[in-house]
Design goal:
Blueprint: E1 3-11, E2 15-18, H1 30-37, E3 42-47, H2 48-58, H3 71-82, E4 84-88, E5 101-104, H4 108-118, E6 122-125, H5 129-137, E7 143-149, E8 157-160, E9 168-178, E10 182-191
Helix pairs in contact: 2-3
Pfam families: RibD_C
GO molecular function: 5-amino-6-(5-phosphoribosylamino)uracil reductase activity
GO biological process, one term: riboflavin biosynthetic process
């Protein structure tokens, strides 16, 4: 059976990106980059918006306001290109042009449920906020990992990650600090039907 990881890279205030900021907010360090390079092989899950964005980067398109990718960003995109990717979309047309990408038009939740039951290895979301939210609501997420960078993007932040999420209890299973400033926290999530009303008597 496969394991599903929802994996986010965020500012401290919970944004997935910020207008005018480079990848990793320009704050990645050698420890963090080394850790990224040590991650096991995964199959990435994404929706149409993330596919359009990331495949554009792979084709050489850089984010607005930037002249070119830094070497660290180029390597990250190259690794994604080499990885297996499953894209859930009813609007994209086949064939997908980004290498190693498979288009799935069926319901994402039921498709991932089947992938988990019938597969092995690790499945991981990348970006795709609405997909991640749907998979969490359905109780399919085994691990919820957040890497928080030491920046607050209250003015320029884009894509608030947790808007629309259910209430979730999180049991910490790992934590780590990279380069003295980047914080990783990893949890086992449990979706709550309702918040606790108080401690038992």
């Amino acid at each position: 059976m496969s394991e599903l990881l929802v994996d986010f890279i965020t500012s401290l205030d919970g944004y997935a990106s910020g207008e005018g900021w480079p990848g990793f907010w320009g704050l990645e360090g050698p420890e963090y980059l080394a850790w990224l390079g040590e991650q096991p092989k995964v199959t990435y899950l994404m929706g149409a918006n993330t596919y359009r964005l990331m495949s554009g980067f792979a084709a050489g398109k850089v984010p607005s306001g930037l002249d070119e990718f830094r070497p660290e960003e180029e390597e990250s995109v190259d690794e994604l290109t080499r990885a297996s990717k499953v894209v859930f979309s009813s609007s994209l047309a086949e064939p997908l042009t980004w290498a190693n990408s498979t288009l799935v038009r069926d319901d994402a939740v039921e498709s991932v449920r089947a992938m988990k039951a019938n597969g092995s290895g690790l499945l991981s979301t990348i970006g795709s906020l609405s997909l991640s939210r749907s998979l969490l609501r359905a109780g399919l997420v085994d691990r919820f990992r957040v890497v928080m960078f030491p920046v607050i993007t209250g003015v320029t932040g884009a894509e608030r990650i947790y808007d629309g999420y259910p209430d979730v209890a999180l049991e910490m299973i790992e934590h780590r600090t990279f380069d003295g400033s980047i914080q990783l926290v990893e949890y086992k999530p449990r979706v709550l039907e309702r918040p606790p009303l108080g401690a038992p008597a």
